[in-house]
Design goal:
phage-related protein like fold
Length: about 650
């Protein structure tokens, strides 16, 4: 591999053009570059096939909308190779978008170069209709089992397309492999398997890489810690779980099943009383988890239940209550529903038996569907702010760097000067937010699944909406900083209130100029370049026209880099004015924070004597603030 190159996890999916959408003036054509279909893959390390699932709602089109390349055969054509000869066009910035759950589109501009005229002409004529797009997966996948094939399904919550290619054989269900070379390399019984073996030169986004690494480390630490705790409860030693900890592909559910086998073999070797095997804590935990998963799936029907949960998918709430009581030795045959639920929640306490099972199953199902919805909701502000993990609720002071903007000359024998870190005057902190939910006895008797499916799903979305409300309220409030001036102030050289207008190339150029001229504490130029443009829905049409239909003057025939490099964010919470903003992610001026160990919302439950049911509550710790006035620009917009 050449110096300066990085091997990245990329793959390809099929796409198709719409020949009728050809525009002669802009030499552009519409491409349906994803339908969200599943794809068959092959795990060489484990020697098994598996199914890849990439939901369109998790597609991040930022790289495409930055003007990604359109290639010939992913740069693997033996005639053109991986060089610039493989480039036959580019994605029109701002046109890559998810249209529905089954379709994502983009408009691509094709080259005028003579050496590429043949392939461009075939695309225009509809001869070449099959396309593929390259992408990178982000984060850890969720694992399930396909009920029809029994194969493992790996679903990634987020993936990033980064190029679109014209190909002869797209990877799609019912078609052949992408190319003859790839087909020969793969297992002949697996025609849909595709493997990326390229070495691609990339310029990594350090902030995104850092975030991905941190998320991966936290997820792996949580997995390992949970496995160790489960092993301790069933008295398994480190030697018993060593292989589970070493293999990140072993999920917590799979580890529970393996522990159950180990405990079963251990107990089978020991004496049992009256010919009956003792019920272990691991069996109780596995059974409870399976019932939680079964109830959560029945309430919302998202994903695929595991083999352990499948027997409980059709259990009604009454069946679950009866199962919990029977498990404790309480007979339920002929017992009325009213008494059954009372007994499962409260009645067995007087007899000295645990009442936690039924309550834990109800709360667990609500929690599962809540977190599923929470993890699927996107934060449109994450690329605009620096993320912090805060250990407590004390005021946080932002640290600023002094006297370290440029290096000093060092003549021989000269004393080295040290830059200093000083405590800034901008302070902020975390706040706690919460909401309660009651599941009454009437809801239990009526087998009302809305409390376990629709409602927690909406609660998960509501937490993200809370973060968005707080962040964008802060963004538009233009608060005063420690210098007693608003964030956007003429003294800060980041505003053009007197000559505002709708976003266009000239107005954006004025904002870029002000960003370029911003300086640090020592007066050195920061040379910032805008990466995002943020506006309310009043400017959405102007942004659509700017990114989809912008044609430069006749002299240059090019789209300015300042336009091509911008990622648009349209936020309805900014509709109070026509103002729009430019931000440079290289110098984040906003911070968001979460409490250490509680990056996700906390979920708690208890029995409710008042409603004769269960009370649950969700708490979330979050904070956001402006840390400085640099790296941002505001235009008041058209009057």
């Amino acid at each position: 591999m050449a110096a300066g190159t990085t091997r990245i996890d990329r793959d390809f999916r099929t796409a198709t053009t719409i020949p009728e959408s050809w525009d002669e003036e802009t030499r552009s054509i519409e491409v349906v570059f994803s339908t969200g279909a599943r794809a068959m893959k092959f795990d060489k390390r484990r020697g098994i096939p598996w199914i890849e699932e990439l939901p369109l709602r998790g597609m991040d089109c930022a790289d495409l909308n930055a003007g990604a390349h359109v290639l010939r055969a992913h740069g693997m054509d033996p005639k053109t190779g991986e060089g610039l000869d493989a480039v036959i066009g580019s994605v029109v910035p701002g046109t890559a978008r998810v249209v529905s759950d089954t379709e994502a589109r983009a408009r691509v501009t094709l080259s005028r170069a003579a050496g590429k005229a043949d392939v461009v002409q075939d695309i225009r004529d509809g001869v070449i209709r099959k396309w593929s797009y390259g992408y990178r997966r982000v984060g850890r996948p969720s694992i399930s089992t396909d009920p029809e094939t029994g194969l493992e399904v790996r679903s990634w919550p987020r993936h990033i397309p980064d190029e679109i290619s014209a190909v002869a054989f797209p990877a799609d269900s019912g078609t052949t492999t992408r190319s003859a070379d790839q087909h020969r390399q793969e297992d002949q019984d697996m025609p849909d398997v595709t493997v990326d073996t390229r070495q691609t030169t990339v310029v990594p986004d350090e902030a995104a890489l850092h975030t991905a690494r941190e998320e991966g480390r936290r997820a792996e630490a949580t997995r390992a810690d949970t496995i160790r705790k489960l092993a301790a409860k069933v008295r398994l030693g480190d030697e018993d779980i060593r292989s589970m900890l070493a293999d990140p592909a072993v999920t917590i559910e799979a580890a529970q099943a393996q522990m159950l086998d180990l405990v079963g073999k251990r107990d089978a070797a020991s004496e049992t009383r009256a010919g009956h095997a003792a019920i272990t804590r691991d069996e109780e935990l596995t059974r409870r988890q399976a019932m939680i998963e079964g109830l959560a799936y029945r309430a919302l029907a998202v994903g695929t239940p595991s083999d352990l949960a499948r027997p409980f998918v059709n259990y009604k709430l009454r069946d679950i209550a009866a199962e919990c009581l029977e498990h404790q030795g309480v007979r339920t045959r002929g017992v009325a529903d009213n008494e059954l639920f009372d007994g499962a929640l409260f009645g067995t306490r007087a007899a000295g038996l645990s009442t936690s099972d039924f309550q834990a199953i109800l709360a667990g199902a609500v929690h599962k569907n809540f977190l599923d919805a929470f993890s699927q909701e996107a934060r449109n502000f994450e690329g605009l702010a620096l993320r912090r993990i805060i250990t407590d609720f004390k005021p946080v002071r932002e640290i600023k760097l002094s006297s370290f903007s440029v290096l000093d000359a060092l003549p021989e024998g000269a004393e080295l000067k040290f830059g200093t870190l000083s405590e800034g005057e901008e302070t902020w902190g975390l706040a706690s937010y919460g909401k309660g939910l009651r599941i009454t006895r009437q809801a239990l008797i009526n087998d009302d699944l809305g409390a376990f499916g629709t409602l927690p799903n909406r609660m998960g979305s509501a937490v993200i909406r809370l973060e968005k409300n707080l962040f964008w309220a802060l963004f538009t409030s233009n608060p005063k900083l420690a210098d007693n001036k608003e964030v956007f102030h003429s003294a800060h050289k980041n505003i053009t209130d007197s000559a505002g207008a709708a976003p266009d190339a000239d107005q954006i150029a004025k904002g870029r100029l002000l960003l370029r001229q911003q300086t640090d504490l020592a007066g050195n130029y920061l040379d910032l370049v805008p990466s995002h443009i943020v506006a309310g829905t009043a400017n959405e049409l102007a942004l659509d026209r700017l990114f989809a239909s912008f044609v430069a003057n006749e002299a240059s025939k090019t789209i300015p880099q300042v336009i091509r490099s911008l990622t648009p964010i349209v936020e309805p919470r900014l509709d109070g004015s026509t103002a729009w903003y430019l931000l440079a992610k290289a110098w984040p001026s906003l911070v968001i924070g979460y409490l250490a160990g509680s990056e996700q919302p906390r979920f708690m439950s208890r029995e409710s004597w008042e409603t004769q049911g269960v009370e649950m509550k969700v708490e979330h710790d979050f904070g956001c603030a402006w840390s400085c006035h640099r790296g941002v620009y505001r235009n008041k917009g058209a009057a």
